[in-house]
Amino acid sequence: MREVLWWRSLKLTGIELPESSVGVGEHVRLIMDEPCQYAMMDRIINVPPSDEPEAWQIWLETEQGKFRADTPEFHARVGIMIRRRGLLANLSLRENLLLPFLYHGDAERLAAAEQEVESVAAFLGLADVLDEQAGERSGYTHALLSLGRCMLLHPAIIVAQEIHVGMSPDRLMRFRDMAIGALRQLGSGLLYLTSSEYEGSGVRFDRTLVLQSETA
Fold it and tell me: Which of 7, 63, 101, 114 lies 20 to 30 Å from 71 when distance is taken between CA atoms?
């Protein structure tokens, strides 16, 4: 059985998201307004206690079992890319890339990520600044770091909010090419949250679901 990210029918800011899923290698696009995007991300990150019915709204199904969104098994296999997800200014770019692995406390996974961080930084064009303090960085660099963390994770599924919004055209083209190349290299499934069908990612989607506000 392949790994599949499932979600039940969800109410997102008063709008119904039908039950569906995305599997490894499958690209699914959800077109929804920005409040809905953040509400969806919130359901993945801030999971209710296990004794509440909403606890199993989003989960990963694998050959080893089903893992809801607050488990280490889920976060070891699902990469997340959120717009405006800040870097820690007092850490180097290298440390920011490795930060999720430090938080997880898994020495084996951290060691594997440390072995790959140089090659990932080179792919992203960050090799020369990898050990510089993060400080204040552009949205473009934030997006690169978010993509880099997913590359180090080797996730089965990536849940991505459109993080390229506001980039200049030349940077958008560079980031889009890198993101598509990384997605092809990883073979991950993609659940892509965007506010427009003209989102500019360059990704070919297998399915698109459009959520409209009640006032639309």
Answer: 114
In Å, what is the CA distance from 34 to each residue of 12, 41, 42, 203, 211?
11, 11, 12, 20, 11
Helix (H, G, I), strand (E, B) or coil at 30: strand
- Backbone φ/ψ region at 178: left (φ over 0), alpha (ψ -120 to 50), beta: alpha
Measured CA angle at 104 (ends 102, 105), to 5 deg = 70
The Cα–Cα gap between 121 and 9 comes to: 38
Q: Are 212 and 32 in contact, with CB atoms under 8 Å apart?
A: no
CATH code of the domain containing 10? 3.40.50.300
pTM for the predicted model, two decimal places: 0.91
Domain that holds residue 122: 4-210
* pLDDT on residue 86: 66
Number of domains in the chain: 1
Q: What are the structure tokens assigned to 145, written together?
A: 């770091």
